[in-house]
């Protein structure tokens, strides 16, 4: 969106960020997202605020395991720091597993499952 003064309704902003409306409300109460109120006291979110939370476009890299979000906490301990990020975009994880594993887990469309991403390194960008 080019007009930074353009306003999203709370539900439009949540959809643009890939989060639930309840999450947007919690973020507003916690000060993670700046909102305005209309005359009916409904939350409005500036387009520039949505863009801030979405971050830069991913045109430079081909990595698919990038999960954009908002930093939830930073814990520094000596040389290392633990950074926790609330993911704000919808993400899709694709795994190649054995047929046996699919059968044992009873996997089929619509069934709940968790994807565990294993990596030798996780990088943080801003």
Quick structural summary:
The chain is α+β, with helices and mostly antiparallel strands. It is built from 4 helices and 5 strands.
Gyration radius (Cα, Å) is 18 Å
**Helix residue percentage:** 25-40%
- Spatial order of the strands in the main sheet? 1-3-2
- The number of helical runs is 4
Q: Which CATH class?
A: Mainly Alpha
As for the number of domains, it is 1
The topology string of helices and strands comes to: EHHEEHEEH
* Main sheet properties: 3 strands, antiparallel
Question: What is the strand content?
Answer: 15-25%
The number of E-state strands comes to 5
The third-level CATH topology is Multidrug-efflux Transporter Regulator, Chain: A, Domain 2
Instruction: Indicate the overall shape.
Output: extended
């Amino acid at each position: 969106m080019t007009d930074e003064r353009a306003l999203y309704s709370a539900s439009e902003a949540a959809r643009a960020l890939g989060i639930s409306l309840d999450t947007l409300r919690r973020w507003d109460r916690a000060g993670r997202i700046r909102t305005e109120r209309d005359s009916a006291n409904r939350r409005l979110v500036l387009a520039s605020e949505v863009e801030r939370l979405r971050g830069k476009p991913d045109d430079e890299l081909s990595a698919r395991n990038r999960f954009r979000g908002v930093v939830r906490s930073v814990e520094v301990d000596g040389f290392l720091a633990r950074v926790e990020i609330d993911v704000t975009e919808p993400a899709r994880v694709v795994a190649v597993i054995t047929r046996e594993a699919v059968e044992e887990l009873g996997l089929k469309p619509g069934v709940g499952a968790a994807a565990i991403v294993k990596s030798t390194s996780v990088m943080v960008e801003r």
